[in-house]
histidine kinase (Clostridium lapidicellarium), 471 residues
Amino acid sequence: MKKGLFSKLMIAFIAIIMVSFVMTAAFLSYWFEGYYFKQRESELLKESQFIKYKAIQYLNGNLTADEINETLTYIGNYLSADIWLVDNYGYVYSVSKSEHKNLIATSKQIVTSDLKELRQNKTVDKTEKYSQIFANPVHTFEIPIFSNNVFKGAIMMHTSINELKGPLKWVYKIIWVSAVFAIVICCIVIYYLSQRIIIKPLERINYVADKISRGEVEKRVDINSKDEIGELAKSFNSMADSLEQVEKNRREFISNVSHEIRSPITSIKGFIGGMIDGVIPPEKQNYYLSVTYSEIQRLTRLVNDLLDLSAIDSGQIKLRVEKVDINEVIRLCVIKFETRINEKKLKVDVLLENDKLYVAADKDKITQVVTNLIDNAVKYVNDEGNIKIFTKIKGEKVFVSIYNNGSSISEYDMKHMWDRFYKSDKSRTSKISTGLGLPIVRSILTQLGEDIWVENKKPNGVMFTFTLKRI
């Protein structure tokens, strides 16, 4: 799990978080740099107003050179900038730092290309390298000076790029360290939540699934969660319950089959062994041979029923649905039971709607259904009892009912009568039933897409009813 889903989740989440925080940090850095330079520009413009005032006074002869230099020095120290005053031709006439006074003495024209923009009362913002004056590149901000709408020169404020980026580097450091710290914290939280919410529950489900695959079908997943993982655990437990029931049914089925097969085989073995050993005298051998033959017939019925059920469950039997006269099928099935009906002196009423009643069914299989239900009625009705078989049309369906006035079925028996090998006699010694007749009936009708049910009738009696599609 950790090498598969967990690692994929962690890689995906970490990648998303890293990209998100890196983009956020980059945006903040870019935004703060722009904000910082705007603030710096605003501060320079604010202080330049005072410098303009002093410069005009100096140019008008109201201020001495020492006084203007002193003003520039004070403001330059405050702004951490080198401030120069240039005239309308670009020559320097005052500086804030004494080491740059040689610019005044040499009468070197500093501003040339920018004079056009300055004369248009535009500020100039640029980064330049004055290699002969400054050791490092500087950011230069040039502000024009006008007096009575006449261009008088400009203020040049130089700030070292390294000095400008000093505060920015500290801010960048805070932003990126915070981003890295946030990424680490998020990774830890994601690791913990992934383990607790997804990975650990899936590991428990996987562990229980492995145990169930090894035969421990009673194992269950204990996860109390209302999210999709909780729903998965609930569905998994539901599946495990079904598997446990299937396993229980399988064991019970094997036990029932073993019991049903063992009983006739034991009888056959005992009778034949008695004949071979001479325990059974010759004059009684025919009687015991007839008993052995009946046991073989019972065993044959059981095997045939098991084969039918297995074929139906596995889908090997393909129903050949055709037009079948259900009334004719019922008549033929009743005739087959004539001997047993006469033996028990039963009264059988057959009430069929219409002379011919056609339905969609597999003729052989629907004959087996009717035969099993009539056999069940004859088996459980009392001697001289009544059996009623009737058909009725209701819309597009035909209802076939088989009633006998025998004892009612208990609630417990009603719940389990469709189970394989279930018999109402708890001794399980009945030799006239395999306990598979009704399950076969239900399986056939289910394959036809039809239904069957049973109900107790008052004052007594039981009635089985199944449906077929009318043609």
Remarks:
- Residues 426-430 have pLDDT under 50 and may be disordered.
- The first strand starts at residue 82 and ends at 86.
- The radius of gyration is 52 Å.
- The longest helix spans residues 2-59.
